[in-house]
Amino acid sequence: MCELTTSGLRLDDTDLEILKILVHDCRTSYHSIGKTLNMSTNTAKTRVNNLISSKVIECFTTIVNLSVFGYSRVLTVVLRHPT
């Protein structure tokens, strides 16, 4: 069992697997997460909500495949500004 501890926050293997699923497709249903990880839909929902409330998950985003619009190379820059 792996446990990641950061600033008093503990993420277990299940949390990390949930994050992996959501990074791959942030629209994955609680039912699908639960089925994949052998847990109930309600448990999956509770765990995702805990990740949101602890700010591990900040938002769910859509990544557009820009090659559809004819772009062959794209540079994405993410900036964080302390508020």
Annotate the secondary structure layout.
Elements: E1 3-6, E2 9-12, H1 13-24, H2 30-36, H3 41-53
Antiparallel strand pairs: 1-2
Q: Please, could you describe this protein's structure?
A:
With 83 residues, the chain is an alpha+beta fold. The protein contains three helices and two strands, in the order E-E-H-H-H. Strands 1-2 form a two-stranded antiparallel ribbon. Helix 2 (30-36) crosses helix 3.
Notable characteristics:
single chain, 83 residues, alpha+beta, 3 helices, globular
What is the mean pLDDT? 88
Q: Main sheet?
A: 2 strands, antiparallel
Total helices: the number is 3
Q: Cα-atom Rg, whole angstroms?
A: 16 Å
Structural class: alpha+beta
One letter per element, helices H and strands E, the order comes to: EEHHH
Q: How large a portion of the residues is in β-strands, by DSSP E?
A: 5-15%
Coarse morphology: globular
What is the straight-line distance between the termini? 36 Å
Strand order of the largest sheet: 1-2
Number of strands: 2
Helical fraction = 25-40%
Unreliable segments of 5+ consecutive residues: none
Summarize the structure.
This protein has helices at residues 13-24, 30-36, 41-53; strands at residues 3-6, 9-12.
